[in-house]
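Render this sequence as a predicted structure.
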Amino acid sequence: MAYFEILKKVDPHPGPLPSAFAKATADKKEEGADVLRARNGVIHTAHGDVNTPAFLPIGTKGTVKAVTSEELKFWGAEMILANTYHLWQRPGDGLIYKAGGLHKFMNWKGPIFTDSGGFQVQSLAKFKKVMEAGVLFNFDMDGRQEILSPEKSIQIQANLGSDICLILDDFSGVPFEYGQSKISTELTNRWAERAIREHLNIMKNGDPINPGQKLWGIVQGSNFKDLRKISAEAMVNFDFEGFAIGGIATVDEPFEEMMKAVEWSITHLPEEKPRHLLGVGTPYDIVQVVARGCDTFDCVIPTREARHGRLYIAARVSSPSPSGRGARGEGSSDVEGYATIDIRLEKFKEDFTPVDNTCDCYLCLNHTKSYLRHLFAAGEPLATRLASMHNLRFYLNLMKKIRTAIQYDYFDEMAENYKDYTKIN
């Protein structure tokens, strides 16, 4: 069985297409517009299958904030992401190894994806110095000085026992500068060789928690087309099981620049291997990068926004379809998107309706906007929990919609119309 399988689409039109729709489809092909790379697939891991495209809730410190492992599974999460830097800092990868690995430690029975810790060292450490050996830094919590090397990152991730681990990469940070980005890209390539050797040694000669752990490479290169190409081709030559695309979700980076970097990376990656986009993003971002061929994603947005009273809700707006057909060929001019609300606002004080009447999360089935606003105003911990449950369910439901749209071949319309309609609503 292949590690990653790309699934075939279902023909939604077993009979002849209506002439108008057939013409629109033909026009698209003639113009070269059918370049959407969206695909459904399955990643087979040691702890189960992951249906892609998939969103990975972030369990930074061994927990997805405010929710339980059982709830995540019930809502449809198949893989979560945990963070090497934070778990190394506390409680320590050695303790987690003694517990039998992160799966047992946090009672998550599905696949786990771990990052390398490199981004957190760059963004959180009190002091850092990038060297050929690795990154010398001081932990943000207690000031302890350590070196995170390519080998150390792999050792920690092996102790955690994740199903997918990443090489240590160097990210030059913003603002992007070509010379430094080139140095960082070349350093990441050299670190990749060392990571491969260490991972192979642990899997063959060590006592790994998860002998089925797979190592993925990372494509860097900032927002420079030639560096993205160089990085991607180097990672492909290393023959990793899959690839992550890094350096995308940076502060204040324009959406168009993000998409260019994704496209410049994916163009040089093999179709038959999975691609993970690190740190992305909003619902709109996710739909757009699925269209460009990304398979999995992770982001703190659902839970971080929830802690600040910001919730994602479904939104439908009237918009004429260019083909004269709705997403399912029913002729509807309504298109689906989303909006965000700040539940802390005064206008929700006497709003006794659900947060989202299309949502089946615990919050929306049992409580009102007024009640949730009251919880936030009173500083009750339940406020964060209910809001987190809702946002995570929204994201996981979105991934189901995306997979269905790809399967039945109407994802192109979804990619065109699925947007943030907050201002309209």
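Summary. Confidence is low (pLDDT under 50) at residues 15-35, 323-327. The chain has 16 helices and 16 strands.
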